[in-house]
Specification:
The chain is built from 14 helices and 15 strands. By secondary structure, the chain is an alpha/beta fold. The protein binds pyridoxal-5'-phosphate (PLP). The site of pyridoxal-5'-phosphate has 14 residues, from helix 3 and helix 4.
């Protein structure tokens, strides 16, 4: 039976040629392709700097390191996200504090963020859920007022805009993921964009074991031309040139990919609006979503039937998914002492949502099939 996934990468012959070209070259690990990829990513997002990483998770951890998170610090983030957003903060010794979401967008609610600020808070980490930028007008002003860093998890939102500003140039640091279901792919990979040189330099240090080769940055006297200096505790989080070549080739198609996603979202809106018990995702007029996901929600009686509807869609060969179980409800977080129900809106969202297929090459025919099935179950 045919299976339509909820998300999928789009590769072309051009992408494959770009990768093969690097495989035939002398350089495989981080090198000239990574540099080019970073320059292009910075250009596209309107940021001054971009640093590439081996995954989005690695990129997040590096951003937390760059922001100087240390044990005892708190970061305020959304529970409606992939576990990596909070996990990476834990790896840097910080505590994750969850602030509830807005039901209409699935994004963190600025008013809830304010309630969670303590003397230990160091950063706010909003997640652009499903590709829709958060309320950055409010979030930036809260961050400024309380002297907190704004570290944006834009794993879903490469190619999105907020009030005409590109995601990647809004927050102090913005993290992207290049996992195959995201806007563009490098197989695995991630990046952080920033306008701050000090953050950029710390990001580069972190992905290379905290080692610098730049003599002007040495803290101790050089032992000779071979000398490199380890100054911080980092890791090997480098992206390879093989991956960067794919990323560079993919980046050229970002506007096309986002355009196709937007067209699919517009069709879903047209064909599913007015269906009883169904709430469609919103796109406020001051924002442009990258439509990583198309999460529909069920209300009333249909909400109680979510799991049954989910199973029926899967049985019909439609790769629906649930994004997300609130992070604090996983066994690991429960063990850390997070109680169930701390973010009631996120719980309501989780219980009533299903992500239906959206990706650039979703065919018209397959989309019609998804619409028909969904309507027949209502
Ligand atoms: C994909 C994703 C990540 C992690 O990125 P990886 O590249 O898979 O490590 C983090 N946050 C969110 C919201 C994601 O969707």
């Amino acid at each position: 039976m045919k299976f339509i996934p909820y998300g999928r990468h789009t590769l072309t012959a051009q992408d494959i040629r770009a990768v093969v070209g690097v495989l035939k070259s002398d350089w495989l690990t981080q090198g000239p392709q990574v540099e080019k990829f970073e320059r292009e990513l910075a250009k596209i997002t309107g940021a001054r700097f971009a640093a590439a990483f081996s995954s989005g998770t690695a990129a997040l951890q590096a951003a937390y390191f760059a922001a100087g998170l240390s044990p005892g610090d708190e970061v305020i983030t959304s529970p409606l996200t992939f576990a990596a957003t909070a996990n990476a903060a834990l790896w840097q010794g910080a505590k994750a504090v969850f602030a509830d979401i807005e039901l209409e967008t699935g994004n963190i609610d600025p008013k809830e963020v304010e309630k969670k600020i303590t003397k230990r808070t160091r950063a706010i980490v909003p997640v652009d859920y499903a590709g829709l930028p958060c309320d950055y007008g409010a979030l930036r002003s809260i961050a400024r007022q309380h002297k907190l860093w704004l570290i944006e998890d834009a794993a879903h939102a490469l190619g999105a805009e907020y009030r005409g500003k590109k995601v990647g140039s809004i927050s102090d640091m913005t993290m992207f993921s290049f996992h195959p279901v995201k806007s563009i792919t490098t197989g695995e990979g991630g990046a952080v964009t920033t306008n701050r040189k000090d953050f950029y330099e710390r990001l580069l240090l972190f992905r290379n074991h905290g080692i610098t080769k730049d003599p002007t940055k040495f803290k101790f006297k050089s032992h000779g031309p071979w000398y490199q200096e380890m100054q911080e505790l980092g890791l090997n989080y480098r992206l390879t040139d093989v991956q960067a070549a794919l990323g560079l080739s993919q980046l050229k198609k970002l506007p096309e990919f986002v355009g196709l996603r937007r067209r699919i979202a517009a069709r879903y809106r047209k064909e599913l609006s007015g269906v009883k018990g169904l709430i469609l995702p919103q796109e406020p007029s001051d924002r442009r979503s990258a439509w990583h996901l198309y999460p529909v929600r069920f209300t009333g009686e249909f909400s109680r039937r979510r799991d049954e509807i989910f199973k029926k869609l899967r049985a019909a060969g439609i790769g629906v998914q649930v994004h997300y179980l609130p992070v604090y409800r996983y066994p690991y977080y429960r063990k850390l002492g997070y109680p169930k129900g701390i973010c009631p809106q996120a719980e309501v969202f989780f219980k009533s949502c299903i992500s239906i297929p959206i990706f650039p090459r979703l065919s018209r025919k397959d989309q019609k099939f998804v619409v028909k099935k969904l309507k027949s179950l209502g």
